[in-house]
Amino acid sequence: MAATLLETARQYAAQQDFLAAAIVRYYAESSEVLRLLQFSDISGNAISYDVLESMPDVGFRAINEGYSESTAVWKKEMEALMIAGGDLDVDVALVSMFPESDLRTQQELFKVRALSLAWTTAFFKGMNSADGRQMNGLQVRLGDEENELVINGNGALSLTNLDRLISRVDNPTHLFMDEELKLKLQAASRNTDIAGFITFTPDEFGRQVVRYQGLPIIGLKNDNARRRILGFTESNPQGSGNNFTSVYCVAFRPMGLVGIQNKPIEVRRLGEINDKPAFRSRVEWYSSFAMFSNCAARLMGISDNPVVA
Question: pTM of this prediction?
């Protein structure tokens, strides 16, 4: 059964495994994608599943006529787990001189956060053809040319194109975009031609959430390398330059867009290494994501201009 990482953290806490609970919680809270996405545990290193490619034919008939037989056509998909993580060393002398600082834990948490942000970038921008160790992200899976799940805005973000984007996804749950573009949407809410379509509602903690058509708008900032995850750095087949961005509409739900993992992220303390006086820790996670239906769509070619109706 799929569960969010925060739900997994609560399960660890209920089992008195407070270290694992803290690591998984911190990992999820470091990325809005990982906080919201549900993950299914799988055995082995890949998952195979069927995606509906075409519906069966139906029709009307007259008396004494028959029907032409047809069935739905399914396409077999496979998603492999990708191994991501990293090692870190903390000098034995520092651990001895500053025991109250718990330097190993600090460095481990920084590593966990870095992996969270790097995974988020791969979720959108990963390209397996460029790096065979990395999963394909939404940009590659959906494509760079207009199709059923990709719209080219070719200019300023418009509410009309946002409506078109949302309509392409079955039971959508969230909108993802660059934080600067989200701020432009918030500014547009003060425009009398647009006001009313963009709403602000409190979440369970009382924080204001920006919504469009009831969908939470998630603004993304920098990754672990301080690069914008969805910055205005994309090319546009219908325009010129590399100063465009994309908006993604997703359906984070079972049988929609679902994360897959062999087990939750873990931090392993390997002890003192042989080639230098340092304690080594390893952060590692075996994961990817699967798309079971029309669970994501992309609005590309968005320029850095004010939002229009």
Answer: 0.90
Structure tokens at 218: 């998630």
Residue 257 region, left (φ>0) first, then alpha (ψ -120 to 50), else beta? beta
The three-state secondary structure class of 77 is strand
Question: What tokens were used for 306?
Answer: 């004010």
Q: What is the mean pLDDT of residues 98-109?
A: 89
The string of pLDDT tens digits covering residues 262-285 is: 999 999 999 999 999 999 999 999
**Cβ-based burial of 246 (10 A; exposed 0-12, middle 13-18, buried ≥19):** buried
User: Rg (Cα) of the chain, in Å, rounded?
Assistant: 23
Give the dihedral sign, CA 221/261/85/19: positive
* CA–CA distance, 272 with 91 (Å, rounded to integer): 9
CB 256 within 8 A of CB 16: no
pLDDT in tens, 127-156: 999 999 999 999 999 998 888 899 999 899
In what side-by-side order are the strands of the sheet with 257-272? 3-4, 38-41, 257-272, 278-291, 82-91
Residue 18 corresponds to which tokens in the numbers above? 């407070």
Q: Which two tokens stand for residue 78?
A: 């496979």
Which of 111, 120, 127 lies closest to 229, judged by CA? 120
Q: Which amino acid is at 239?
A: G
Q: Work out the number of other CB atoms within 10 angstroms of the CB of residue 264.
A: 22
Domains assigned to the chain = 3-49+76-302 (3.90.1690)
Average pLDDT over residues 208-233: 94
